[in-house]
């Protein structure tokens, strides 16, 4: 089946479309510019006095009350909105720490690339905050900063780019936020929101359509969690042989010395423990391969800032196993409402025969059912070891908002559709054996390239 039938693109009538001017101004190549000029001449498109439609935000109203929007580009200026932002984040149905101002503060300080910029847009209904849209601006690979690509903050540490919208005003808030984004970046081609959770108000807000954007669902991520709300019996029934292994591992660990398990919350979870945690993580294979957090200055700065700000609000947790006072396994927890996210875990490899990381996971899971008020433990990732625990997975979906301009639909929407087709159709048809061979070839090629790379002149 042709790609155009699976992801049909809207028909553009050049006789009625004034965005041809955009394409002509875009084209760096003289031949392309000449082609568009011919199209303009033959089709009679009106290119004079073209302006992007940008409405005044105050014209948007709910119950005769105007929605006020404001954008911030300085990290210190975020503090004026932090309390209202935090209240909206804690009550959001997604229950994700990435939605909170403390996470975004650390991201904007330490995760924005050198060629990128950022801004954060807020929507207020009266004095009440009803929407937050943080945006990272990146140059387009061909058109550069003239036609940038926008994305909500997301990377290999921030695994979801979902946003905050008041559920009862989701569509109005999103529309106002997007109009504010248009004022800040009038020429952007797309806004990508990676890994949006199924409970996000974004789905209802986009279901009725957006006047300036084509809405496209993209790649699906499947993140693991412990469903505390389902009850401890369902959890234990899913462990199978692992329950016996946990008893065996604990017996072996007890033979190494006095064992203590600590679930540190609130004031007991001190941010200064981050230094011991990072040293523990770097003591193993990650440190040997150069991929430990402490070996990546930006990553270390990000996590240090993150635990400081979460601890200040009493939402940081440390989960620790000690043997004779020595830390042999540790994990980080970040609370958002009735959910605890578990972004990092580390263990001492000299105790690997006792599986201290597995034992710590079991202790954290068991404690979650005893705490009474938790709904889930969210790993916000998909790892092979999660399968040992028979963890349920939830789909998080990339949401592409492609501008309805002629340039975006011609030059970018087709690219987005092709990538979606690859990830969600073609890639799934490749057998695991072929995928393994491809990965092996890639690794071999990288190793050969590294071996023959010329040494740098000191």
UniProtKB/TrEMBL annotation:
It holds the Pfam family Acetyltransf_6. Its EC number is 2.3.1.-. Keywords: Acyltransferase, Transferase. GO terms for molecular function: acyltransferase activity. InterPro entries: Acyl_CoA_acyltransferase, BioF2-like_GNAT_dom. Signal peptide: none annotated. Residues 243-373 form the BioF2-like acetyltransferase domain. This is GNAT family N-acetyltransferase. It comes from Methylobacterium longum.
